Protein backbone atom coordinates (compact mmCIF):
# COMPACT_ATOMS: atom_id res chain seq x y z
CA UNK A 1 0.00 0.00 0.00
CA UNK A 2 2.89 2.38 0.66
CA UNK A 3 4.17 1.74 -2.87
CA UNK A 4 0.75 2.65 -4.23
CA UNK A 5 0.55 5.73 -1.99
CA UNK A 6 4.02 6.91 -3.01
CA UNK A 7 3.07 6.64 -6.68
CA UNK A 8 -0.11 8.62 -6.12
CA UNK A 9 1.85 11.33 -4.28
CA UNK A 10 4.23 11.60 -7.24
CA UNK A 11 1.25 11.77 -9.65
CA UNK A 12 -0.39 14.51 -7.57
CA UNK A 13 2.78 16.61 -7.55
CA UNK A 14 3.45 16.12 -11.28
CA UNK A 15 1.10 18.94 -12.46
CA UNK A 16 3.11 21.33 -10.24
CA UNK A 17 6.19 20.51 -12.32
CA UNK A 18 7.73 17.93 -9.99
CA UNK A 19 9.46 14.93 -11.55
CA UNK A 20 11.01 11.98 -9.70
CA UNK A 21 14.80 11.93 -9.39
CA UNK A 22 16.97 8.94 -8.53
CA UNK A 23 18.96 10.50 -5.68
CA UNK A 24 17.82 12.64 -2.73
CA UNK A 25 20.81 14.97 -3.39
CA UNK A 26 19.15 16.12 -6.63
CA UNK A 27 15.72 16.77 -5.12
CA UNK A 28 14.03 20.07 -4.23
CA UNK A 29 11.41 18.13 -2.28
CA UNK A 30 12.08 14.91 -0.37
CA UNK A 31 9.06 12.92 0.82
CA UNK A 32 9.66 10.09 3.28
CA UNK A 33 6.72 7.71 3.15
CA UNK A 34 6.73 5.94 6.48
CA UNK A 35 5.40 2.83 8.24
CA UNK A 36 4.45 2.66 11.92
CA UNK A 37 3.57 -1.02 12.14
CA UNK A 38 6.67 -2.02 14.12
CA UNK A 39 9.10 0.08 16.15
CA UNK A 40 12.04 -0.71 13.87
CA UNK A 41 10.26 0.75 10.84
CA UNK A 42 9.28 3.87 12.77
CA UNK A 43 12.79 4.42 14.15
CA UNK A 44 14.29 4.27 10.66
CA UNK A 45 12.51 7.53 9.89
CA UNK A 46 14.55 9.46 12.45
CA UNK A 47 17.88 8.09 11.27
CA UNK A 48 16.88 8.95 7.70
CA UNK A 49 15.93 12.47 8.85
CA UNK A 50 19.41 12.86 10.35
CA UNK A 51 20.88 12.20 6.90
CA UNK A 52 18.45 14.62 5.28
CA UNK A 53 19.45 17.37 7.71
CA UNK A 54 23.04 17.18 6.42
CA UNK A 55 21.78 17.20 2.85
CA UNK A 56 19.48 20.18 3.48
CA UNK A 57 22.26 22.18 5.12
CA UNK A 58 24.64 21.42 2.24
CA UNK A 59 22.00 22.60 -0.25
CA UNK A 60 21.37 25.76 1.80
CA UNK A 61 25.11 26.54 1.70
CA UNK A 62 24.78 26.55 -2.11
CA UNK A 63 21.72 28.81 -1.88
CA UNK A 64 19.28 26.01 -2.74
CA UNK A 65 16.18 25.34 -0.66
CA UNK A 66 15.13 21.75 0.00
CA UNK A 67 11.72 20.92 1.45
CA UNK A 68 11.45 17.77 3.60
CA UNK A 69 8.06 16.10 4.04
CA UNK A 70 7.21 13.09 6.19
CA UNK A 71 4.15 11.19 4.96
CA UNK A 72 2.48 7.96 6.06
CA UNK A 73 1.62 6.41 9.37
CA UNK A 74 4.56 7.72 11.43
CA UNK A 75 3.48 11.21 10.36
CA UNK A 76 -0.09 10.36 11.33
CA UNK A 77 0.90 9.01 14.74
CA UNK A 78 3.39 11.72 15.71
CA UNK A 79 1.91 14.84 14.09
CA UNK A 80 3.39 18.12 15.30
CA UNK A 81 5.74 16.28 17.71
CA UNK A 82 7.71 15.28 14.68
CA UNK A 83 8.61 18.88 13.81
CA UNK A 84 9.66 19.47 17.42
CA UNK A 85 11.83 16.35 17.55
CA UNK A 86 13.28 16.86 14.05
CA UNK A 87 13.18 20.52 12.99
CA UNK A 88 14.48 19.47 9.54
CA UNK A 89 10.87 18.44 8.79
CA UNK A 90 8.89 21.07 6.86
CA UNK A 91 5.71 19.07 6.26
CA UNK A 92 3.96 16.31 8.21
CA UNK A 93 1.20 14.70 6.14
CA UNK A 94 -0.97 11.76 7.18
CA UNK A 95 -2.27 9.07 4.80
CA UNK A 96 -5.68 10.71 4.40
CA UNK A 97 -4.26 14.07 3.26
CA UNK A 98 -1.94 13.21 0.35
CA UNK A 99 -4.17 15.01 -2.10
CA UNK A 100 -3.31 18.25 -0.28
CA UNK A 101 0.45 17.89 -0.90
CA UNK A 102 0.63 20.69 -3.53
CA UNK A 103 -0.99 23.16 -1.10
CA UNK A 104 1.17 21.94 1.78
CA UNK A 105 4.35 22.34 -0.28
CA UNK A 106 3.34 25.92 -1.19
CA UNK A 107 2.57 26.71 2.46
CA UNK A 108 5.83 25.16 3.71
CA UNK A 109 7.87 27.24 1.24
CA UNK A 110 6.65 30.33 3.11
CA UNK A 111 6.40 28.94 6.63
CA UNK A 112 7.94 25.53 7.40
CA UNK A 113 6.35 23.17 9.92
CA UNK A 114 3.00 22.51 8.25
CA UNK A 115 1.01 19.61 9.74
CA UNK A 116 -2.02 17.88 8.21
CA UNK A 117 -3.01 14.65 9.93
CA UNK A 118 -6.78 14.96 9.77
CA UNK A 119 -8.69 11.70 9.27
CA UNK A 120 -11.22 13.35 6.99
CA UNK A 121 -14.38 11.91 5.56
CA UNK A 122 -13.81 13.50 2.13
CA UNK A 123 -12.66 11.15 -0.61
CA UNK A 124 -8.97 11.81 -1.15
CA UNK A 125 -9.04 9.37 -4.07
CA UNK A 126 -11.31 11.77 -5.98
CA UNK A 127 -8.76 14.51 -5.56
CA UNK A 128 -5.55 12.58 -6.21
CA UNK A 129 -4.30 13.15 -9.75
CA UNK A 130 -4.32 9.96 -11.88
CA UNK A 131 -1.04 8.92 -13.51
CA UNK A 132 -0.42 9.66 -17.19
CA UNK A 133 -0.06 6.87 -19.78
CA UNK A 134 3.72 7.12 -19.94
CA UNK A 135 4.01 7.07 -16.18
CA UNK A 136 1.89 3.90 -15.97
CA UNK A 137 3.98 2.24 -18.68
CA UNK A 138 7.19 3.14 -16.84
CA UNK A 139 5.89 1.48 -13.65
CA UNK A 140 5.39 -1.82 -15.41
CA UNK A 141 2.86 -4.48 -16.28
CA UNK A 142 1.71 -5.23 -12.73
CA UNK A 143 -0.04 -2.53 -10.69
CA UNK A 144 -1.56 -1.99 -7.28
CA UNK A 145 -4.97 -0.41 -6.75
CA UNK A 146 -6.16 0.46 -3.25
CA UNK A 147 -9.85 -0.48 -2.94
CA UNK A 148 -10.24 -0.34 0.83
CA UNK A 149 -8.42 1.53 3.56
CA UNK A 150 -8.31 1.42 7.30
CA UNK A 151 -9.37 -1.34 9.63
CA UNK A 152 -12.13 -1.73 12.18
CA UNK A 153 -10.89 -4.95 13.76
CA UNK A 154 -8.68 -3.80 16.64
CA UNK A 155 -6.22 -6.63 16.99
CA UNK A 156 -4.60 -5.72 20.32
CA UNK A 157 -1.05 -5.38 18.90
CA UNK A 158 -1.90 -3.27 15.87
CA UNK A 159 -1.65 0.49 15.21
CA UNK A 160 -3.48 0.39 11.88
CA UNK A 161 -6.94 1.31 13.22
CA UNK A 162 -5.49 4.44 14.84
CA UNK A 163 -3.17 5.50 12.00
CA UNK A 164 -5.40 4.67 9.04
CA UNK A 165 -8.80 5.01 10.69
CA UNK A 166 -11.85 2.75 10.30
CA UNK A 167 -12.60 0.65 7.22
CA UNK A 168 -13.66 2.57 4.13
CA UNK A 169 -14.27 0.89 0.75
CA UNK A 170 -14.01 2.77 -2.55
CA UNK A 171 -17.05 2.63 -4.83
CA UNK A 172 -17.01 -0.03 -7.59
CA UNK A 173 -17.23 2.51 -10.46
CA UNK A 174 -14.15 4.37 -9.26
CA UNK A 175 -12.14 1.16 -8.93
CA UNK A 176 -13.24 -0.06 -12.37
CA UNK A 177 -12.34 3.30 -13.95
CA UNK A 178 -8.87 3.18 -12.38
CA UNK A 179 -8.30 -0.39 -13.57
CA UNK A 180 -9.52 0.48 -17.09
CA UNK A 181 -7.08 3.35 -17.23
CA UNK A 182 -4.19 1.11 -16.14
CA UNK A 183 -5.19 -1.65 -18.58
CA UNK A 184 -5.41 0.83 -21.48
CA UNK A 185 -1.78 1.77 -20.78
CA UNK A 186 -0.62 -1.87 -20.89
CA UNK A 187 -1.02 -3.17 -17.33
CA UNK A 188 -1.84 -6.92 -17.31
CA UNK A 189 -1.98 -7.71 -13.61
CA UNK A 190 -3.85 -5.90 -10.83
CA UNK A 191 -3.42 -6.47 -7.11
CA UNK A 192 -6.29 -4.88 -5.26
CA UNK A 193 -5.25 -3.68 -1.83
CA UNK A 194 -6.78 -3.06 1.56
CA UNK A 195 -5.74 -3.57 5.18
CA UNK A 196 -8.73 -5.89 5.42
CA UNK A 197 -9.42 -6.35 1.72
CA UNK A 198 -11.72 -9.35 1.87
CA UNK A 199 -14.11 -7.31 4.02
CA UNK A 200 -14.52 -4.97 0.99
CA UNK A 201 -18.02 -3.56 0.68
CA UNK A 202 -17.93 -0.80 -1.92
CA UNK A 203 -21.00 0.90 -3.29
CA UNK A 204 -21.97 -0.77 -6.57
CA UNK A 205 -23.44 0.95 -9.64
CA UNK A 206 -26.82 -0.34 -8.41
CA UNK A 207 -26.39 1.63 -5.18
CA UNK A 208 -25.99 -1.58 -3.16
CA UNK A 209 -22.76 -2.74 -1.50
CA UNK A 210 -20.68 -5.15 -3.58
CA UNK A 211 -18.38 -7.64 -1.91
CA UNK A 212 -14.91 -8.60 -3.09
CA UNK A 213 -15.83 -11.65 -5.26
CA UNK A 214 -18.29 -9.58 -7.29
CA UNK A 215 -15.75 -6.78 -7.73
CA UNK A 216 -13.08 -9.29 -8.85
CA UNK A 217 -15.49 -10.79 -11.41
CA UNK A 218 -16.17 -7.28 -12.75
CA UNK A 219 -12.45 -6.44 -12.96
CA UNK A 220 -11.84 -9.71 -14.82
CA UNK A 221 -14.04 -8.28 -17.63
CA UNK A 222 -11.73 -5.28 -18.18
CA UNK A 223 -10.00 -5.86 -21.54
CA UNK A 224 -6.28 -6.55 -21.12
CA UNK A 225 -6.46 -7.65 -17.49
CA UNK A 226 -5.12 -11.20 -17.41
CA UNK A 227 -4.35 -11.56 -13.72
CA UNK A 228 -5.96 -10.52 -10.46
CA UNK A 229 -4.69 -10.77 -6.90
CA UNK A 230 -5.83 -9.33 -3.57
CA UNK A 231 -4.10 -8.53 -0.28
CA UNK A 232 -4.39 -8.59 2.72
CA UNK A 233 -7.17 -10.78 4.05
CA UNK A 234 -8.56 -11.74 7.44
CA UNK A 235 -9.57 -15.39 8.08
CA UNK A 236 -12.96 -14.29 9.40
CA UNK A 237 -13.87 -12.60 6.11
CA UNK A 238 -12.82 -15.56 3.90
CA UNK A 239 -16.38 -16.12 2.63
CA UNK A 240 -17.69 -19.12 0.70
CA UNK A 241 -18.17 -16.84 -2.37
CA UNK A 242 -14.58 -15.64 -2.22
CA UNK A 243 -13.32 -19.20 -1.89
CA UNK A 244 -15.52 -20.22 -4.85
CA UNK A 245 -13.99 -17.39 -6.90
CA UNK A 246 -10.66 -19.22 -6.64
CA UNK A 247 -12.31 -22.11 -8.47
CA UNK A 248 -14.42 -20.13 -10.92
CA UNK A 249 -12.47 -17.05 -11.94
CA UNK A 250 -9.56 -17.99 -14.21
CA UNK A 251 -7.98 -14.53 -13.84
CA UNK A 252 -7.76 -14.91 -10.07
CA UNK A 253 -4.23 -16.19 -9.46
CA UNK A 254 -3.69 -19.30 -7.31
CA UNK A 255 -2.11 -17.45 -4.42
CA UNK A 256 -3.55 -16.43 -1.07
CA UNK A 257 -1.96 -14.33 1.64
CA UNK A 258 -3.94 -15.10 4.77
CA UNK A 259 -2.30 -13.96 8.01
CA UNK A 260 -2.62 -16.42 10.92
CA UNK A 261 -0.41 -14.47 13.39
CA UNK A 262 -0.34 -17.43 15.82
CA UNK A 263 -1.27 -21.10 16.02
CA UNK A 264 -2.35 -20.90 19.67
CA UNK A 265 -6.00 -20.24 20.54
CA UNK A 266 -4.98 -18.64 23.82
CA UNK A 267 -2.75 -16.12 22.04
CA UNK A 268 -5.24 -15.56 19.21
CA UNK A 269 -7.78 -14.69 21.86
CA UNK A 270 -5.40 -12.26 23.61
CA UNK A 271 -4.67 -10.74 20.18
CA UNK A 272 -8.43 -10.23 19.69
CA UNK A 273 -8.08 -11.94 16.30
CA UNK A 274 -11.57 -13.40 16.70
CA UNK A 275 -10.61 -16.60 14.89
CA UNK A 276 -9.32 -19.88 16.22
CA UNK A 277 -6.59 -22.10 14.80
CA UNK A 278 -9.31 -24.53 13.69
CA UNK A 279 -11.20 -21.83 11.79
CA UNK A 280 -7.95 -20.85 10.08
CA UNK A 281 -7.11 -24.44 9.10
CA UNK A 282 -10.70 -25.02 7.99
CA UNK A 283 -10.67 -22.00 5.66
CA UNK A 284 -7.38 -23.12 4.13
CA UNK A 285 -8.78 -26.62 3.61
CA UNK A 286 -11.76 -25.10 1.77
CA UNK A 287 -9.50 -22.89 -0.34
CA UNK A 288 -7.36 -25.91 -1.22
CA UNK A 289 -10.45 -27.92 -2.16
CA UNK A 290 -11.51 -25.08 -4.50
CA UNK A 291 -8.05 -24.61 -6.00
CA UNK A 292 -5.74 -27.54 -5.21
CA UNK A 293 -2.59 -25.91 -6.59
CA UNK A 294 -3.00 -22.71 -4.56
CA UNK A 295 0.16 -21.24 -2.98
CA UNK A 296 -0.44 -20.17 0.60
CA UNK A 297 1.22 -17.35 2.45
CA UNK A 298 0.84 -15.89 5.93
CA UNK A 299 2.06 -13.47 8.59
CA UNK A 300 3.20 -14.57 12.06
CA UNK A 301 4.08 -12.68 15.21
CA UNK A 302 6.31 -14.40 17.77
CA UNK A 303 6.71 -13.33 21.40
CA UNK A 304 3.28 -11.77 21.86
CA UNK A 305 2.77 -11.00 25.60
CA UNK A 306 2.10 -14.21 27.51
CA UNK A 307 3.30 -16.52 24.69
CA UNK A 308 4.59 -19.68 26.38
CA UNK A 309 6.79 -22.40 24.90
CA UNK A 310 3.61 -24.41 24.33
CA UNK A 311 1.89 -21.51 22.51
CA UNK A 312 4.90 -21.16 20.27
CA UNK A 313 4.94 -24.93 19.69
CA UNK A 314 1.30 -24.60 18.55
CA UNK A 315 2.38 -22.00 15.98
CA UNK A 316 5.16 -24.31 14.73
CA UNK A 317 2.64 -27.13 14.53
CA UNK A 318 0.21 -25.04 12.48
CA UNK A 319 3.02 -24.13 10.08
CA UNK A 320 4.01 -27.81 9.72
CA UNK A 321 0.42 -28.76 9.02
CA UNK A 322 -0.17 -26.15 6.32
CA UNK A 323 3.09 -26.03 4.38
CA UNK A 324 3.41 -22.42 3.20
CA UNK A 325 4.83 -21.31 -0.14
CA UNK A 326 6.08 -18.15 1.55
CA UNK A 327 5.40 -16.25 4.77
CA UNK A 328 6.42 -13.18 6.73
CA UNK A 329 7.27 -13.41 10.41
CA UNK A 330 8.05 -10.77 12.99
CA UNK A 331 9.00 -10.35 16.62
CA UNK A 332 6.18 -8.75 18.57
CA UNK A 333 6.84 -5.02 18.78
CA UNK A 334 4.93 -3.05 21.45
CA UNK A 335 3.21 -0.08 19.80
CA UNK A 336 2.15 3.08 21.61
CA UNK A 337 -1.53 3.21 22.54
CA UNK A 338 -2.28 -0.45 21.73
CA UNK A 339 -3.71 -2.72 24.46
CA UNK A 340 -0.99 -5.37 24.06
CA UNK A 341 1.78 -2.87 24.85
CA UNK A 342 0.66 -2.72 28.49
CA UNK A 343 -0.22 -6.42 28.90
CA UNK A 344 1.54 -8.53 31.52
CA UNK A 345 3.96 -11.23 30.41
CA UNK A 346 6.05 -9.25 27.90
CA UNK A 347 8.46 -11.77 26.38
CA UNK A 348 12.23 -11.15 26.70
CA UNK A 349 14.00 -10.08 23.51
CA UNK A 350 16.28 -13.14 23.57
CA UNK A 351 13.29 -15.50 23.62
CA UNK A 352 11.63 -13.62 20.75
CA UNK A 353 14.84 -13.88 18.70
CA UNK A 354 15.17 -17.60 19.39
CA UNK A 355 11.57 -18.26 18.36
CA UNK A 356 11.83 -16.12 15.26
CA UNK A 357 14.95 -17.97 14.13
CA UNK A 358 13.27 -21.35 14.64
CA UNK A 359 10.09 -20.28 12.82
CA UNK A 360 11.94 -18.70 9.92
CA UNK A 361 14.06 -21.82 9.44
CA UNK A 362 10.91 -23.90 8.93
CA UNK A 363 9.26 -21.30 6.69
CA UNK A 364 12.42 -21.04 4.57
CA UNK A 365 12.57 -24.79 4.10
CA UNK A 366 8.88 -24.87 3.17
CA UNK A 367 9.44 -22.14 0.58
CA UNK A 368 12.37 -24.07 -0.86
CA UNK A 369 10.33 -27.27 -0.97
CA UNK A 370 7.50 -25.44 -2.76
CA UNK A 371 9.91 -24.01 -5.33
CA UNK A 372 11.67 -27.36 -5.81
CA UNK A 373 8.32 -29.06 -6.44
CA UNK A 374 7.69 -26.54 -9.27
CA UNK A 375 10.80 -27.60 -11.19
CA UNK A 376 9.83 -29.45 -14.36
CA UNK A 377 6.44 -27.70 -14.58
CA UNK A 378 5.44 -25.26 -17.30
CA UNK A 379 3.81 -22.09 -15.99
CA UNK A 380 2.78 -18.72 -17.40
CA UNK A 381 5.15 -15.93 -16.41
CA UNK A 382 4.33 -12.23 -16.62
CA UNK A 383 7.65 -10.52 -17.27
CA UNK A 384 8.15 -7.39 -15.22
CA UNK A 385 11.71 -6.08 -15.42
CA UNK A 386 15.34 -6.80 -16.35
CA UNK A 387 16.96 -9.46 -14.16
CA UNK A 388 20.07 -9.06 -12.06
CA UNK A 389 22.39 -10.50 -14.71
CA UNK A 390 22.76 -9.02 -18.21
CA UNK A 391 20.53 -10.69 -20.83
CA UNK A 392 18.09 -11.81 -18.17
CA UNK A 393 14.52 -10.76 -17.45
CA UNK A 394 12.43 -11.57 -14.42
CA UNK A 395 8.71 -12.05 -13.94
CA UNK A 396 6.17 -13.73 -11.71
CA UNK A 397 4.59 -17.15 -11.93
CA UNK A 398 0.89 -17.48 -11.03
CA UNK A 399 2.14 -18.61 -7.60
CA UNK A 400 4.07 -15.35 -7.09
CA UNK A 401 7.45 -16.97 -7.56
CA UNK A 402 10.12 -14.82 -9.17
CA UNK A 403 11.22 -16.51 -12.42
CA UNK A 404 14.39 -15.57 -14.34
CA UNK A 405 14.72 -16.30 -18.06
CA UNK A 406 17.45 -15.46 -20.57
CA UNK A 407 15.64 -13.08 -22.92
CA UNK A 408 15.63 -9.54 -24.24
CA UNK A 409 13.87 -6.58 -22.64
CA UNK A 410 11.28 -6.57 -25.46
CA UNK A 411 9.55 -9.46 -23.66
CA UNK A 412 8.82 -7.29 -20.60
CA UNK A 413 5.06 -6.83 -20.20
CA UNK A 414 4.26 -10.15 -21.92
CA UNK A 415 2.92 -13.39 -20.50
CA UNK A 416 4.75 -16.47 -21.79
CA UNK A 417 4.75 -20.18 -21.02
CA UNK A 418 7.98 -21.03 -19.22
CA UNK A 419 9.38 -24.41 -18.24
CA UNK A 420 10.91 -24.15 -14.77
CA UNK A 421 14.31 -25.80 -14.78
CA UNK A 422 16.12 -24.88 -11.54
CA UNK A 423 15.81 -23.12 -8.18
CA UNK A 424 17.95 -20.23 -6.96
CA UNK A 425 18.04 -18.93 -3.40
CA UNK A 426 14.60 -17.29 -3.52
CA UNK A 427 13.67 -17.56 -7.18
CA UNK A 428 13.44 -19.97 -10.10
CA UNK A 429 15.13 -20.23 -13.47
CA UNK A 430 13.18 -21.13 -16.60
CA UNK A 431 13.21 -21.50 -20.38
CA UNK A 432 10.51 -20.55 -22.85
CA UNK A 433 8.36 -23.64 -23.28
CA UNK A 434 7.85 -23.00 -27.00
CA UNK A 435 11.55 -22.35 -27.67
CA UNK A 436 12.76 -24.44 -30.58
CA UNK A 437 16.12 -26.09 -29.81
CA UNK A 438 18.75 -24.36 -31.94
CA UNK A 439 20.54 -26.65 -34.46
CA UNK A 440 24.23 -26.82 -33.68
CA UNK A 441 26.29 -25.44 -36.54
CA UNK A 442 29.05 -27.76 -37.75
N1 LIG B 1 4.46 -6.31 16.22
C1 LIG B 1 4.89 -7.22 15.30
N2 LIG B 1 4.28 -7.45 14.14
C2 LIG B 1 3.16 -6.73 13.87
N3 LIG B 1 2.33 -6.75 12.82
C3 LIG B 1 1.34 -5.85 13.03
N4 LIG B 1 1.52 -5.24 14.22
C4 LIG B 1 2.64 -5.78 14.76
C5 LIG B 1 3.34 -5.58 15.98
N5 LIG B 1 2.91 -4.70 16.89
C6 LIG B 1 2.49 -7.66 11.68
C7 LIG B 1 1.28 -8.58 11.53
C8 LIG B 1 0.61 -8.04 10.30
C9 LIG B 1 1.78 -7.50 9.53
C10 LIG B 1 1.44 -6.52 8.47
O1 LIG B 1 2.59 -6.90 10.49
O2 LIG B 1 1.77 -9.90 11.30
O3 LIG B 1 -0.13 -9.03 9.60
FE1 LIG C 1 -4.24 -4.62 12.18
FE2 LIG C 1 -4.87 -6.46 10.29
FE3 LIG C 1 -5.80 -6.70 12.81
FE4 LIG C 1 -6.74 -4.77 11.21
S1 LIG C 1 -6.96 -7.02 10.92
S2 LIG C 1 -6.16 -4.53 13.35
S3 LIG C 1 -4.87 -4.20 10.07
S4 LIG C 1 -3.62 -6.82 12.12
Parts with pLDDT < 50 across at least 5 consecutive residues = none
Bound molecules: 5'-deoxyadenosine, iron/sulfur cluster
Q: Quickly count the helices.
A: 15
Net shape: globular
The amount of helix comes to 25-40%
Beta-strand portion reads 15-25%
Instruction: Look at the structure and give the mean pLDDT.
Output: 95
| Strand order within the widest beta sheet | 15-16-17-19-18
Rg estimate, integer Å:
23 Å
The class by helix and strand makeup works out as alpha/beta
Number of strands: 19
Reported for the largest beta sheet, the result is: 5 strands, mixed, barrel
Q: Report the end-to-end length measured between terminal Cα atoms.
A: 55 Å
How would you describe the overall organization of this protein?
By secondary structure, this protein is α/β, with parallel strands linked by helices. Helices cover 37% and strands 21% of the residues. The chain is built from 15 helices and 19 strands. It has helices at residues 2-13, 39-61, 73-78, 80-85, 101-110, 124-127, 133-139, 160-164, 172-184, 212-220, 240-248, 265-270, 277-290, 309-322, 349-374; strands at 29-34, 67-72, 91-93, 114-116, 142-146, 148-149, 168-169, 189-193, 201-203, 209-211, 227-231, 255-257, 295-302, 326-331, 378-386, 392-396, 402-406, 415-423, 428-432. The mean pLDDT is 95. The chain binds 5'-deoxyadenosine and iron/sulfur cluster. 5'-deoxyadenosine binds at residues 37-38, 157-158, 259, 261, 299, 301, 330, 332-333, 335.
